[in-house]
Amino acid sequence: KSCQKPVDKYIEYDPVIILINAVLCKAQAYRHILFNTKINIHGKLCIFCLLCEAYLRWLQLQDSSQNTDPDDLIRYAKEWDFYRMFGIASLEQTSFFIGIFITLWWMTPEMLKRKSDFILLLKALLLSTYGKLLLIPGVIWEHDYTPLCLAFIKVFVLISNSQAIRVTLNLNRILPWFAIFFGLLLENSVVCLFQKMGWDV
Predict the structure, then answer these.
(1) Distance CA 8, CA 180 (A)
(2) Residues 157, 110: contact at Cβ < 8 Å?
(3) Are residues 52 and 119 in the same domain?
(4) Same domain as 128, residue 88
(5) Is the pLDDT confidence value at 185 over 70?
(6) How open is the CA angle 87-93-95, to the nearest 5 degrees?
(7) Could you tell me if 160 and 145 are in contact, meaning their C-beta atoms sit under 8 angstroms apart?
């Protein structure tokens, strides 16, 4: 029923091929991963992706303020800015997910009747943020095109999120993008709020 086929063809496939098809954002590969496997790394993957994003922001913050003041060095040694960046990244991702949930619940309330529907969608969204792991090579191989690479990573993560929503709720292509748009709107509102408070985001 979930795969919309007589049988899920990915049951016979090697995990590497399934992963490659998931990276290519194939809907049937997403269905197989979400419905026919027992993957339980949602929380760990989310924390790891947030740590990668926080480290990248912390590194950019450190580069932008080349201050030789000893107090400033002590502050970086204590890593308080890193923890702040982790908190900001967590709040941004939470607001992005809340925007998606509110939009989907408002537009298709029959799809999200039960608590299990919300949990499945949350797991799908968390798994589909695996593209943020590409931030690691972006940091390691630092070059002049890093902002462009980060933009491509963001687009890839949004496409993955769209496929996850589409597969989980069995929707057409337009509604997931509509939900993602409102999620981004809420996330950017949070960023603007932080900037008005004088925080470096």
Answers:
(1) 28
(2) no
(3) yes
(4) yes
(5) yes
(6) 100
(7) no
Question: Using an 8 Å Cβ cutoff, are 61 and 81 in contact?
Answer: yes
Nearest to 165 by CA among 153, 152, 175: 175
Best CA proximity match to 8, nearest among 27, 26, 31, 25: 31
What is the spatial distance between Cα 94 and Cα 17, in angstroms, rounded to a whole number? 31
Residues in the chain: 201
128 contacts 163 by C-beta, under 8 angstroms:
yes
Give the C-alpha separation, 154 to 72, whole Å: 31
31 and 48 both lie in a single domain: no
Radius of gyration in angstroms for the set of CA atoms belonging to the chain, rounded to a whole number: 19
- Overall domain count for the chain: 2
105 and 153 fall within a common domain = yes
- 72-120: pLDDT as tens digits: 555 555 577 888 889 989 999 999 999 999 999 888 877 777 878 888 8
Query: Which residue type occupies 57?
Result: R
Query: Is 147 found in the same domain as 86?
Result: yes
Nearest CA among 127, 125, 134, 195 for reference residue 166: 125
In this predicted model, what pLDDT tens digit does every residue of 121-162 receive, in sequence order?
Answer: 898 899 888 888 887 777 777 666 667 888 888 999 999 999
pTM for the model stands at 0.80
- Look up the domain containing 23 and give its range: 1-39
Q: Assess whether 87 and 32 both reside in one domain.
A: no
